[in-house]
Amino acid sequence: MSTWANLGLQDSASPLMEQLIFFHDHALLILVMITVLVGYLMFMLFFNNYINRFLLHGQLIEMIWTILPAIILLFIAFPSLRLLYLLDEINEPSVTLKSIGHQWYWSYEYSDFHDIEFDSYMIPTNELSTDGFRLLDVDNRIVLPMNSQIRILVTAADVIHSWTIPALGVKVDGTPGRLNQTNFFMNRPGLFYGQCSEICGANHSFMPIVIESVPVNYFIKWISKNINS
Ligand code: CUA
């Protein structure tokens, strides 16, 4: 979860988010190098005294400053494509969770098991306990096993929503009439918070997502408890 003064990315809780952070840092480094170089050149132009009345063309420099940026762009494009296809990969998931966006709450279905479905509403500030997180905690949390491949199916019942969890590198639009798919793998236990990130109406800011990442045996206990009730 992001707390105040955290301006960067959240700590990753999945291998894919780790890769996304590496890619972000890589692209940012190239961006900084370009900015510094161009800034230096522009600044130095003010102090340029060289004048050449007969300078009309420069084949070599034109070649260099055309091809070099193209090569630099490839160093961003190929890692970006690698990540894109890695994110799209579905690695034989062991659990499937279906999340449906509504105005303005999420509802969830554990389609692998009978009758496990529930709504997940934000806890209003006036009902929040002292250890709760304002605008971020929900009444019914998602429970999912860590160290397992998990498939998420996302859709919506009314308008477009977006199921987004920064620490897991997941961001999928829920669109009425469509079923979108993604997957993730949580490599540590904990609580992972997310929010809807598609402007979906008046209470768009008030439909957060909370995942409890637990060891597999706890997950099985939770599932069997909920099947019987
Ligand atoms: Cu749902 Cu914004």
**What is the H-and-E element order?**
HHEEEEEEEEEEH
According to CATH, the fold-level topology of the largest domain is: Immunoglobulin-like
Bound molecules: dinuclear copper ion
Main sheet specs: 5 strands, mixed
Please report the distance between the alpha carbons of the first and last residues.
31 Å
InterPro entries: CcO_II, CcO_II-like_C, CcO_II_C, Copper_CuA, Cupredoxin, Cyt_c_oxidase_su2, Cyt_c_oxidase_su2_TM_dom, Cyt_c_oxidase_su2_TM_sf
Family: Belongs to the cytochrome c oxidase subunit 2 family.
Membrane topology: Multi-pass membrane protein
Main location: mitochondrion
Detailed description of the structure:
One of its GO terms (molecular function) is copper ion binding. The protein is α+β, with helices and mostly antiparallel strands. The protein has two domains: about 15-90, Helix Hairpins (Orthogonal Bundle), CATH 1.10.287; about 95-229, Immunoglobulin-like (Sandwich), CATH 2.60.40. The protein has helices spanning about 15-45, 60-90, 215-229; strands at about 95-100, 105-110, 115-120, 140-145, 150-155, 160-165, 170-175, 180-185, 190-195, 210-215. A five-stranded mixed β-sheet has the order 3-2-1-5-8, with no helix packed on it. The chain has a five-stranded mixed β-sheet with strand order 4-10-9-6-7, with helices on one face. A hairpin with a 7-residue loop joins strand 2 (about 105-110) and strand 3 (about 115-120). Helix 1 packs antiparallel against helix 2 (about 60-90). Bound molecules: dinuclear copper ion. Dinuclear copper ion binds near residues 196 and 200.
